[in-house]
Write a structure and sequence with these properties.
single chain, 17% strand, nine-stranded mixed sheet, 221 residues, alpha+beta
């Protein structure tokens, strides 16, 4: 079976996304780039039920290379992201909070500093029909300088160097969307300034934030 380990990883990621509740029914699709080919979920597949052998493999022009099932209808989106970023894996879902924000806002602002893990405030790509080249172009534009984006009246998408990283970023995007929705219900959310975010970056670099490292025990310990 072509790209067996990648198929296994993709199936496991599909189960993770399904268990999170971010993909109702057959909504959502995931992929992993393997050189000049892409392992991708099939169209019409319920993510939580997909097995490795049900995954499709296409080339970078979208032609089916291996597999019995047609690839997701969102293959232009995946290929567009691979063509314009350093992505090695992509996750797309119709997560509830993310989609709600994408139906209502032009941007998901930075109201919590950890949004920097996604590149900063998240843009909402203008609406276009699913599976279209126009949608792919809109999303790739929204992803400039970011590793995640919202899709107007549609959903969310994130990419990473592994499928686990792409899914983790999709989960993080959903958390930020849920936070913004809850904060908005209480009043006008306070948005962090560019200076605030710059200070966060400097503090993270100096403290090694987000990574395990040896404790500084100081002199005499």
């Amino acid at each position: 079976m072509l790209w067996g380990s990648e198929r296994e990883a993709l199936a496991a990621a599909c189960r993770r996304v399904s268990a999170s509740g971010m993909v109702p029914g057959t909504a959502g699709n995931l992929s992993i780039r393997c050189g000049d080919q892409v392992v991708v979920t099939p169209t019409g597949g319920v993510l939580g039920d997909l097995t490795p052998d049900e995954m499709s493999v296409v080339d970078l022009d979208g032609n089916l290379v291996d597999g019995d099932l047609a690839p997701t209808s969102e293959i232009p989106l995946h290929l567009g992201i691979y063509a314009t970023t350093n992505a090695a894996a992509i996750a797309h879902a119709h997560a509830l909070a993310s989609t709600a924000v994408a139906c209502s806002c032009d941007e998901l602002p930075a109201i919590h500093y950890t949004i920097l893990e996604l590149g900063g405030a998240i843009r909402v790509a203008p609406y276009a029909t699913f599976g279209s080249d126009e949608l792919a172009a809109n999303v790739t534009a929204a992803l400039q300088g970011r590793n995640a984006a919202l899709m107007q009246n549609h959903g969310s998408v994130a990419y990473g160097q592994t499928i686990d990283q792409a899914v983790a970023r999709l989960e993080a995007l959903e958390w930020h969307a849920e936070l913004y929705a809850r904060a908005s219900a209480l009043g006008e959310p306070r948005v962090l300034s560019d200076k605030d975010l710059e200070n966060v970056i400097m503090a993270a670099l100096s403290k090694g934030y987000g990574s395990k490292h040896k404790a500084d025990k100081g002199d005499g310990q």
